[in-house]
Amino acid sequence: MDKQKFTLDEIPINGSGIIIDMQMDGILRKKLIDMGLVRGTKFKVDGRAPLGDPIKINLRGYYLTIRKNDAKKIIVEKNG
Amino acid sequence: MDKTFTVALIGNPNSGKTSLFNILTGSRQHVGNWPGVTVERKEGIARYENKSIRIIDLPGIYSLNASSDDEVIAVNYILQEKPDIVVNVIDSSNIERNLYLTLQLLEMNTKIIIALNMADEAEKKRIIIDRNKLANLLSVPVMATVATKSGGIKELLKTALDMERITRIPLRFDYGKTANGKLCEIADLLCKTTSIEPEASFLFAVKLLEDDRYAKDLVLKQRADIGKSVEAAKSQIKEEFGFDPEIYFADKRYEYIESLIRECVQKETASTKDLTERIDRIVTNKWLGIPVFFLIMFLLYQITMGFGNDFLGSYVEAAVSLLAEHVSGLLENAHPLLRSFVIDAMIGGVGSVLVFVPLMFTMYFLISLLEDSGYMARAVYVMDKLMNAVGLHGKTAVAMIVGSGCNVAGIMSTRTLDTKKDRMIGILISPFISCSARLPVYALFAGAFFGSKKVGIFPASGLVVFSLYLLGFIVAVAVGRILSKTVFRQEKSYFIMELPPYRVPTLRSLFIHMWEKTESFIRKAGTVIFGIVVLIWALSVFPIGVEPGSAGSILGRLGSLIAPILTPAGFGSWEATVALIVGIGAKEAVVATFGMVYGTGQGLLTNVLVQYFTPLSAYAFMVMTLLYSPCAATVGVIKKETDSLKWALFSIGYSLIIGWGAAVIVYQVGKVLGL
Prior knowledge:
CATH topology of chain A: SH3 type barrels
Number of domains of chain A: 1
Radius of gyration of chain B: 29 Å
Number of strands of chain B: 12
Radius of gyration of chain A: 12 Å
Largest sheet of chain B: 7 strands, mixed
Number of domains of chain B: 4
Strand content of chain B: 5-15%
Oligomer: heterodimer
Largest interface: A-B, 35 and 41 residues
Strand order of the largest sheet of chain B: 2-3-4-1-5-6-8
Helix content of chain B: 55-70%
Shape of chain A: globular
Distance between the termini of chain A: 6 Å
CATH class of chain A: Mainly Beta
Structural class of chain A: alpha+beta
Number of helices of chain A: 2
Structural class of chain B: alpha/beta
CATH architecture of chain A: Roll
Largest sheet of chain A: 6 strands, antiparallel
Strand content of chain A: 35-45%
Number of helices of chain B: 29
CATH superfamily of chain A: Ferrous iron transport protein A (FeoA)
Distance between the termini of chain B: 73 Å
Strand order of the largest sheet of chain A: 1-6-2-3-4-5
Order of helices and strands of chain A: EEHEEEHE
Helix content of chain A: 10-25%
């Protein structure tokens, strides 16, 4: 399978991948960890809010929403 | 037993913890505040075979990292107040993420029961959890519960009581050889040199390495030198694994959770789209999402006014005037001053507030429905971009909706905002949102001046009220934008939120939430407002000999002094001024004050007002009531939540200027337009 590095906000709707790095620190990183985002976490981009932001992703069996600006700091590998 | 057996409930938001609490405690519950903070603390009593069990509802949290106030409360409660049992409520259909909190709990020195809640929902989603295996692997009891249908409740209570005498050793999670070695070293140090109990020392070592605020505050205050050992251990772990302990530990925990899931959970991949996805396809739809949001808000206000106020409210009104009539007959021979006190101050004053209880019931019922069903989270998601465009957070939109019930509740709900910037702005703009206490004023004026008119199928009074809500929203957003671009320009904001599955709320819990929220209003009506009404009554009848409530009374003179400032806004009478002064205490008292100063009952007030106001000045007065100064309770909460008197005074000052300015603009522009 061909795998490339992207930031989370670049994955199109219905695209999926794996988280490989989070380039941030402090409270935002803590919060993301609490919500189940760590290296190796699989996710699928499920949709976007009516105005295109935030993004809605599916991981660990639930839906999480995150702003594009914050998603830019999450490095992912894209499936397929 | 000299101390009541205590069970604390803890779990993620949306895990059904509150439903479980409601079922366990029934009506035997009360709401208070956590010591030192204003987050609501719910406590109740459960009964099992003649035994009373105290149940504590801890705030819904995702982890014990103590990065928010809610998390600090939970950690503090478990470590300091030591409940006999902690019940970890888990949403079975979302077990994987829920287990993260569980692992952190297991590291604590407390007895734990896991309640796999919403077992029925998981079954529907074809998620099968092997409870026995999970219990064996984690060495704690695992129960299945269905809180909405009281399933598994007796078994849960029995298990809790049975655990009274057994002891539990905190989990020593295996973080790998290097890390565990370091953790043991620091735990040892903590045991020897600080007041931390040996059972909790490993947990504190973990927390220190994770940069946990709570642990650092507690330990480093006692022994600053431990900080050095912690930093050394941190850099050693970072060197060996390439990551901060915070990330490294989290990785290890999720790795373990994933292995637990593989062992204990069977998941059949469902092919059919579930209900949540189908609803979301409409309410978060690219084109429909925002119109649906505004439609729901519009309906919320129309139902509150139409059903709550006009329909239900009229019965209460009839009952109050019947009571006044009856008592008036009984007191026929009493001293006129006493009669005036009982009829005007007591029945008139408090009655005029009670008339609005049905309206409040209706509004809180609907808000609870939106919250419990899961729509509120969608509202946040849908509105975030729009709010963010003006420097605000999606959750601020919800704080505003909750604030339209009561500004105090709105300000409290800003606690769900994670960053200081979003919180401060949320708090400061909340008072501009039209709360239910302003509704009595609108209901009176809109009824008197716009009541008989209709615009299309909607009553004009409803549209007038809606326009005021909209104005409050616009002013709040505009002020928020200014604050975000100036005072809080440097601060950062982010957005991370779960979209929970939709759930049909039980009628029972909707009624409990509705009652909890309305009760505090009724209590206020019984005490604060009653006090104000009596004070105003006294000011209006003294000095003795003046015509009660006339310009010659103390109240009248005070009003006359300030009235000229309000003349440009169209209501420069001393009566209106007095009503506004009283309204700073509590906005719902404005109506009662009008009744007092015009010397009429509630019913006649409508006829009297028409002599003193034009539709235009009535509208300007409503705008003033909407925007000028937060009520006393709101100012109190602003001070408490911002921890600063400066911000509380600021909120009074700038809203007085904005309110006055807006009322003047409305009146003067309206006059030019010939209204």
